[in-house]
Design brief:
Layout lengths: L1 H4 L3 E6 L3 H12 L4 H6 L3 H19 L2 E6 L9 H16 L2 H31 L3 H12 L12 H11 L42 H9 L14 H6 L1 H18 L9 E7 L10 E7 L1 H18 L16 H15 L6 E8 L9 H10 L4 H11 L2 E7 L2 E2 L3 E3 L10 H8 L10 E6 L2 E8 L5 H5 L1
Helix pairs in contact: 2-4, 5-6, 6-7, 9-11, 9-12, 14-15
């Protein structure tokens, strides 16, 4: 009854048909990208112009479709069934009884096939020796879907959340601001740091093939960022857009500067629990530029090659062939092995960092990256990536004022997990009787106590 009482939702989506994609591809193929490069020598202006042009072409070439979405749609009702249903309705309106009977028979036959396929899918999930598949099958049978907590649309709440997410921001004290420590909003981003000397050659240089490969791996259903460039556009027009983005990426690496338009983020607060008691009950999920995410993937692969062998062996997150199960098994191994001897015992301290990614200090991170043999140019590029970031909070249709922050890494960025792991890489135990296991921002300190001596554990 609740499903029947639920009102349908009016949705507008873009129709990425083959014809529309071909029109958009032709538009970019006939574009003379050298005109954009000749118009300005400023990297920010070039990137802003290119992304705005791509978004403009996408809006013109890709048609939209508005439809009603019903909450009681059957899970087995496929797109083919919708077409057959429309054909049946058209035959009924035209009054052709023979055509109507044919359309009805085709729809009835296809419904049986769709139900059987869906039933076989559920049986396969329930019979699989996999708890995840079984639980998925049960939820599909019962049509169970936990309603997500809804954020309240409130302008003051949006502004308060934006300030709250920037609470780790280091204030820049000046003679005028020493007497006034209130938080102020910056209408424009501060001046970007000076690039290195022209004689410095970029350590990392991307090629068109790499950029093309990353663009083709975009997930079309993902949301676009503040620049309105959708991942579906990048995926469909990878061949046409790869050359111009390759030039922008390489110039960014050469100057050790990240364009400001690629650093903007729109934060969507997601409630952590149904009942909200404070600002900390909202998890900040940042919508960033899809173009920047593609760029980050190229830098991420480069950083992993350099820092992979130097990472702490007790860090189990964001690494290949490692999981939380490995961390639990290793902790149990150390504890049980230590308890085999009479008189030994163990103490465990669980530590969880609050807003871990937001606490990253770019200058301190740069020093740590230098110690990990990361080239200076890449360190400067990462510092530029993390500083002078413009962000706003969106609650429904309401948006907060824009704030510029130079602390932390947004949740949702490709580089953020690895940067946090590198930021805490030197957080290790100095005593062999104390094991410090890490999984992202969750840290477990295990003290293997012998002869009642807890000094090493307490010192750690």
């Amino acid at each position: 009854q609740k499903l029947k009482a639920a009102k349908p939702v009016l949705r507008t989506v873009k129709r990425w048909t083959n014809e529309a994609e071909q029109v958009l591809q032709a538009c970019f193929e006939w574009t003379d990208w050298s005109v954009f490069e000749a118009a300005t020598t400023n990297l920010d202006e070039l990137t802003e112009t290119v992304t705005s042009y791509i978004s403009f072409c996408e809006d013109i070439c890709i048609p939209t479709r508005t439809f009603l979405s019903f909450n009681n749609d059957k899970p087995w009702f496929t797109g083919k069934l919708k077409q057959l249903r429309h054909a049946k309705e058209d035959a009924y309106r035209c009054g052709d009884k023979i055509l109507y009977n044919q359309a009805r028979n085709r729809l009835t036959k296809e419904i049986r096939v769709a139900k059987k396929n869906y039933s076989d899918k559920l049986k396969k999930e329930l019979s699989a020796n996999d708890p995840t598949s079984v639980w998925t099958g049960l939820k599909n049978i019962t049509m169970y879907k936990k309603p997500p907590p809804q954020s309240v649309e409130n302008q003051q709440l949006a502004d308060d959340l934006n300030v709250f997410y920037c609470r780790f921001k280091k204030p820049r004290l000046t003679p005028d601001s020493c007497s006034d420590l209130h938080f102020t909003h910056s209408p424009t981003p501060p001046a970007t740091p000076l690039p290195p000397s022209p004689t410095t050659q970029p350590v990392l240089e991307v090629c068109v093939e790499d950029v093309n490969r990353v663009l083709r791996k975009q997930k079309p259903r993902k949301a676009s960022g503040p620049d309105s460039v959708s991942p579906a556009c990048l995926k469909a027009c990878a061949d046409q857009l790869a050359p111009v983005f390759t030039q922008i990426f390489n110039r960014s690496l050469e100057l050790c500067l990240v364009p400001n338009c690629l650093k903007r983020s729109t934060i969507i607060p997601v409630p952590k629990k149904p009942k909200i008691t404070g600002l900390n009950d909202y998890r900040p999920v940042a919508l960033t530029s899809v173009v920047m995410k593609a760029f980050e993937k190229l830098v991420l692969a480069y950083l992993k090659d350099i820092t992979g062998p130097l990472l702490d062996s007790f860090q189990f997150a964001y690494r290949a062939n490692r999981s939380v199960d490995d961390a639990v098994n290793m902790a149990l191994h150390y504890i049980l092995q230590h308890l085999d001897r009479t008189g030994n015992y163990a103490r465990i301290l669980f530590v969880d960092f609050s807003s871990a990614f937001n606490t990253i200090m770019p200058d301190l991170l740069s020093d740590k990256l230098t110690q990990l043999s990361v080239p200076t140019s890449i360190c400067q590029w990462i510092t530029s990536f993390l500083t002078d970031r413009q962000q706003l909070v969106r609650l429904g249709k309401l948006t907060s004022r824009t704030i510029t922050t130079s602390t932390g890494a947004p949740q949702g960025c490709v580089l953020s997990p690895l940067l946090f792991s590198l930021y805490t890489n030197d957080c290790t135990s100095k005593d062999p009787s104390v094991k410090l296991l890490k999984f992202a921002d969750d840290t477990t300190v295990i003290g293997l106590i012998k002869d009642g001596d807890e000094s090493a554990y307490r010192q750690e």
